Amino acid sequence: MHMEPLNDPDTGTSKFKSVLEVLFVSTSLGLTSFGGPIAHLGYFHNEYVKRRNWLDERSYTDLVALCQFLPGPASSQVGIGIGVMRAGVFGGIAAWIGFTLPSVLVLIFFALLARGFDMGSAGWIHGLKIVAVAIVAHAVWGMGKKLITDRNRATIALAATTITLLWQTSLSQVLIIFLAAIIGFFLYKNKTVDQLPEIHVPIKRSFAVICLIIFFGLLLLLPLLREVSSSHWIAMFDSFYRSGSLVFGGGHVVLPLLEREVVSGGWISSEDFLTGYGATQAVPGPLFTFAAYIGAVMNGWLGAAVATVAIFLPAFLLVMGALPFWTSLRRSPKIQGALHGINAAVVGILLSALYHPIWTSSILAPEDFVLACILFVMLAYWNSPSWLVVLSGVLGGVLISYL
């Protein structure tokens, strides 16, 4: 299949425009993507697949499956991967900056100007939770129609939902995806390979290998440097880098890792830590931006910058290192069989997340359910932009609070 080039006669100008396009779209998502990592995948699906057609349904779900395997913030990794496929390495950087920077800035201001501010149970926050219900329901509905096409995959999805809900640990999702890959491998290994759309990943394999070497090198060397050096900045970078490298199962899992590093280590108080984590739930973007708040409490703007870069750097290196190999591996019949199983499991995990914690913490009364239905119809049938759905949810939450 013919790949659309990013460069015609004027290569530099065309690439620059593509990077700016990625930055613009990812920033709009960074300003409106409330609801946590699972909801972010719904926002990405609606914007990148349904609205802009930057990649097809299968390629998106395969990318989600890859990022579920990698440690780190899966939604941020998916965004970086899409940016890379659209505009190269700088596109990946632009996608990360756009999606991350809005919440980073807000959380820094929380840390510096409003420490201890109680978000409470304001109506607009409740409205944002209901927005997350609609977003995730829309993602489950759309992905399920495309990916759950036979009883085997439906069974895998059901099993993934059941296990995720009844065995709620940080390892459950990783184990489910691993088992689904094995089951899919054996069920579909002899299935005819689908003709997949060409995916343009403008990264050389040599560059990918360098990224993987840097990832493992920093993971091994930073603790050693910390031991032989008295530098507070090296210790800080090491703590946040290790936290970002060892998280499986979503952004919430980073909480105990960071608590052990910064509270038990005496860098910030438990009260400041919990206040920042509460604030992080009320802002859009990835939950890993909690690191910006902690860094700002510790060392102001510079501390926030160091903490943010350190905790996201592993995700960036892993995506860059994996993408060039993923594009060829996904064409293998056996790998495609494993991906069939993984994609079905991802739908099941999304469905379980729709129920808990998203539904159980958001739909508390009949009027909540009504608002969720309205927002779902806006997404599924009116094709409303994400910002309008978010605004409608906020206004609806405020209205409900007065009922």
TrEMBL record:
Q: Which domain of life is it from?
A: Bacteria
Name the predominant localization.
membrane
The molecular function terms in GO held by this entry are: chromate transmembrane transporter activity
User: What's one GO-annotated cellular component?
Assistant: plasma membrane
Its placement in the membrane is given as: Multi-pass membrane protein
Mention any Pfam family matching this sequence: Chromate_transp
The cross-references to InterPro entries, in alphabetical order and at most eight, read: Chr_Tranpt_l_chain, Chromate_transpt
Q: Which UniProt keywords apply?
A: Cell membrane, Membrane, Transmembrane, Transmembrane helix
Does the entry feature the keyword Membrane, yes or no?
yes
Q: Where in the cell is it found?
A: Cell membrane
- Where is the chain membrane-spanning? 20-44, 89-112, 124-144, 156-187, 207-228, 240-258, 301-326, 338-357, 369-402
Q: Which family does the UniProt entry place this protein in? A: Belongs to the chromate ion transporter (CHR) (TC 2.A.51) family.
The cross-references to PANTHER family, in alphabetical order and at most eight, read: CHROMATE ION TRANSPORTER (EUROFUNG)
Protein name as catalogued: Chromate transporter
